[in-house]
Amino acid sequence: MLQASPSTSNCQAIWGRREHVLLGVSPFNSRFCDAYIARLAAWAHASAQDFDVLLPGVEHASWILEAVGESRPRAKARKEVARRRRAVEEALEAYAPQRRVAVHDFGDFADDPHYLGLRDEVDEAFTGDEGFRLACLSMSRQAVSSRLRTVRGPDARVDDDQAAAAVRYVRDELPFVLDGATLLGREETLMVYHRPWPLWNRIAEGEFPLKVSPRQGFLVVHDS
Question: Which residues of 141-213 form beta strands (DSSP E)?
């Protein structure tokens, strides 16, 4: 069974109430194989009162492939996102058939006023704060690296241009970890991922000119 580690004391308090979690699924990360997605759904069903799933949209996923230099990035992104969504839906049918779990992607919120407001705040911080910009680029490197190693071998390294090309992905994802609770219409929620997000912790600690909602937390799940 997966185990959960809240990132801050506020995350611990939110987790203690177990009201809702949001499972983040990355299409080009080998961690998110069908078996792991099934384990994640089973864990969420057993551990929280309610949960949803978040995937990137096809356009967002294509930015990763463009950064790597792959041909036909849009078509490949569409295929990969569909495969992950199918794995999610099969896991939900197997482990949470009575639940009404929503499977979202970034694009579902493209016209949401609160999402757009948060995205503007992210853009302002990215433009105006060098430390935040560098932290976003570091996250972008992580997002690109898994796919780059898959297509170019385990020793491939993400360069500055590739990180810059894909940083839009990070910036579009950030609203969900700043205030996913409001975006999803929940009293509170925790974003669930398989490893820490140093960028989120630094925002939560007040290092950058952005605020994490007190109703929003981050939860790392790992093998016991």
Answer: 189-193
Which pLDDT score is estimated for 191?
Answer: 98
44-58, 96-110, 135-149, 190-204, range with the lowest pLDDT: 135-149
Catalytic site residue from 5, 7, 26, 30: 26
Contact (CB, 8 A) for 177 and 191: yes
Say how many Å lie between the first and final Cα of the chain, rounded.
7
Quick one: 70 exposed, middle or buried, by C-beta within 10 A (0-12, 13-18, 19+)? Answer: middle
Mean pLDDT of 74-100: 95
Beta-sheet pairing, 51-55 with 21-24 = parallel
Q: Is 26 a catalytic residue?
A: yes
Give the total residue count for the chain.
Answer: 224
Instruction: Return the domain boundaries, the chain.
Output: 2-223
* Rounded distance between C-alpha atoms, residue 163 and residue 212, angstroms: 24
> What DSSP line would sit under 11-70, residue for residue?
HHHHHHHT--EEEE--TT-TT--HHHHHHHHHHHHHH-S-EEEEE--HHHHHHHHHHHT-
Is the pLDDT confidence value at 223 over 90? no
2-223 CATH fold: Rossmann fold (3.40.50)
Mean pLDDT (the chain, rounded): 94
